[in-house]
Amino acid sequence: MKLLITGGAGFIGSAFVRMVVGQTDYHAVNLDKLTYAGNLENLSAVEGSERYRFVHGDICDAALVDSLLAEERPDAIVHFAAESHVDRSILSPEPVVRTNLNGTFTLLDAARRHSVPRFLHVSTDEVYGSLEAPAEAGEDYPLNPSSPYSASKAGSDLLARSYFVTFKLPVVITRASNNYGPYQFPEKLIPLMITNALDAQPLPVYGDGQQVRDWLYVDDHCRGILAALAKGREGEIYNIGGNRSLPNLDVVRQVLAATGRGESLITYVKDRPGHDRRYALSSEKLMRETGWEPVTNFEAGLSRTIEWYRANTAWVSRVRSGEYRAYYERNYGGRALAR
Ligand code: NAD
Ligand code: DAU
Fold first, then answer.
1. Is residue 151 classed exposed, middle or buried when 0-12, 13-18 and 19+ CB atoms within 10 A define those classes?
2. pLDDT score, position 334
3. Which residue ranges make up each domain of the chain?
4. Is 217 a catalytic residue?
5. Strand partners, 11
6. 3-state DSSP call for residue 334?
7. Which residue's CA is minimally distant from atom 8 of ligand 2?
8. Mean pLDDT, to the nearest integer, of 241-245?
9. Cα separations in angstroms, 335 against 90, 272, 315
10. pLDDT band for position 337 (cuts 50, 70, 90)
11. Fold for domain 2-179+216-240?
12. Half-sphere exposure in the Cβ direction for 275 (13 Å, CA)
């Protein structure tokens, strides 16, 4: 089995590559543009493996994707590559639309022409939009995206579905909830709060901090993708949730307690425009059809993640230098204490 994995140098993609190379006998070809979020350090564990190849390139480059599929003839494409951050999609929507929509289109169309036997499109629960409690989204819940990021993901899901319906491309779509774990870029809530807390810097909480997210440990997500890849039915969508919904403020307080910092570091800042209040999804379909379930308890996963950030200060300081500083200033500079 040979997989073409896109975005394999990012947070979830690199966890997936490490899992595939380390725990299966699959071959993995990783196509990644190495944007600010792509980091080859995340892949040092596999770089010497003869079952792993890295290709530096853009999923929007049709000629490159075409020649790669002709050369490698993969059994499946597992498509992670995306601009993945909501705040950046608000500050600069153009790269988000280009990669998430045009890039997904380029891959789907090449997969069709090369008759790739399986196309797993990695998507998100954000496509369902904000849900009032106690509702949970099943896979047929209406799409109601709020940000340029989630709209581009919803659009890419629909394109993927259209390639199944129209061209019979064997597409499977997964939609996961909020991931956390080692190697996550510190623009997302949990790694941002951990790295700021370790440095005794302010923890910027948007609005009232009562927005709810469902937390999924990254390895549980990757096992869910492997399950959907092996057993998911063509043309079907599978939700992958962590079954652990928490308000943001509870997560931030747990980070402070685990890092030995006081609550005085919490800084309420101006809310994210269009901020979704609550995500909640049911993963019953994936569990029933494949036997997958999330196994990592949130407290255990959070403590493992904090230990990883404590132990990997060189990784943290490299990713927080340069571009990150400019992004941080742009996103947070004008918001402080303007609740
Ligand atoms: P990430 O931002 O950490 O990594 C994205 C990777 O894609 C990077 O390595 C980057 O270099 C690469 N990339 C970006 N544009 C590219 C392009 N044009 N061509 C080739 N490579 C490109 O993202 P992540 O958090 O690991 O998310 C991976 C996927 O999972 C995304 O599709 C995202 O929508 C989805 N997802 C993420 C979460 C989450 O909580 N992070 C939850 C559900 C779904
Ligand atoms: O739900 C799945 C999605 O989860 C993925 O599709 C996205 O790729 C991923 O980025 C994530 O989106 P969110 O917007 O939910 O994640 P983020 O970590 O940016 O924010 C989580 C919550 O924390 C959200 O309610 C906003 C809030 N937040 C975030 C940051 C970065 C803050 O209060 N302060 C912050 O500084």
1. buried
2. 87
3. 2-179+216-240
4. no
5. none
6. coil
7. 84
8. 97
9. 14, 10, 27
10. low
11. Rossmann fold (3.40.50)
12. 15
* Two tokens, residue 262: 């006081």
Q: Mean per-residue pLDDT for 295-305? A: 98
Q: What is the pLDDT of residues 193-227, one digit of tens each?
A: 999 999 999 999 999 999 999 999 999 999 999 99
User: What is residue 152's three-state secondary structure?
Assistant: helix
At 38, give phi and psi (nearest 5°): -90, 135
| Residue 149 is a catalytic residue | yes
Show the beta-strand stretches assigned E in 42-181.
52-56, 76-79, 119-124, 171-176, 178-180
Known active-site residue 126: yes
Distance 172 CA to ligand 1 centre (A): 18
DSSP states of 278-301:
B--B--HHHHHHH-------HHHH
Cα distances from 16 to residues 3, 20, 50, 95, 106, in angstroms, run: 11, 6, 17, 24, 22
Q: What's the CA angle centered on 90, arms 87 and 95, to 5 degrees?
A: 100
Cis bond upstream, residue 247 (ω within 30): no
Q: 188 alpha carbon to ligand 2 midpoint, in Å?
A: 6
pLDDT, tens only, 106-133: 999 999 999 999 999 999 999 999 999 9
